[in-house]
């Protein structure tokens, strides 16, 4: 149980960071939000890969990891487009 949680955090951090590198431009997101997006993308990607039968292969599960990364990129785009990043008040300054 503890190993699975630590694994999800590590994979989530890697997937979230890679997604931010792939998305063009500056993303105004905190490291914690990046981690959350990465963890959620990793968990959803794993569930989809298991349902499709792609998660139990010999060696590295490349399809699962690519799916996780694609979901993380979508998550980063959604978070930045919705303005859920860091410190947006919604007010315009004059």
UniProtKB/TrEMBL annotation:
Gene Ontology CC: one annotated term: plasma membrane
Keyword Cell inner membrane part of the UniProt annotation: no
Localization per Swiss-Prot or TrEMBL: Cell membrane
Keywords recorded for this protein, A-Z: Cell membrane, Membrane, Transmembrane, Transmembrane helix
Transmembrane segments: 6-23, 30-54, 66-84
Keyword Cell membrane: yes
InterPro entries recorded: Transgly_assoc
Membrane topology label: Multi-pass membrane protein
Family in the record: Belongs to the UPF0410 family.
Name of protein: GlsB/YeaQ/YmgE family stress response membrane protein
Originating organism: Nonomuraea aridisoli
């Amino acid at each position: 149980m503890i190993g699975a949680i630590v694994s999800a955090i590590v994979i989530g951090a890697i997937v979230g960071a890679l997604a931010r590198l792939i998305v063009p431009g500056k993303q105004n997101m905190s490291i914690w939000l990046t981690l959350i997006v990465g963890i959620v993308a990793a968990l959803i990607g794993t569930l989809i890969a298991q349902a499709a039968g792609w998660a139990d292969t010999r060696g590295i599960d490349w399809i699962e990891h690519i799916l996780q990364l694609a979901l993380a990129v979508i998550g980063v785009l959604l978070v930045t487009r919705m303005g859920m990043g860091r410190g947006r008040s919604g007010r315009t300054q004059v």
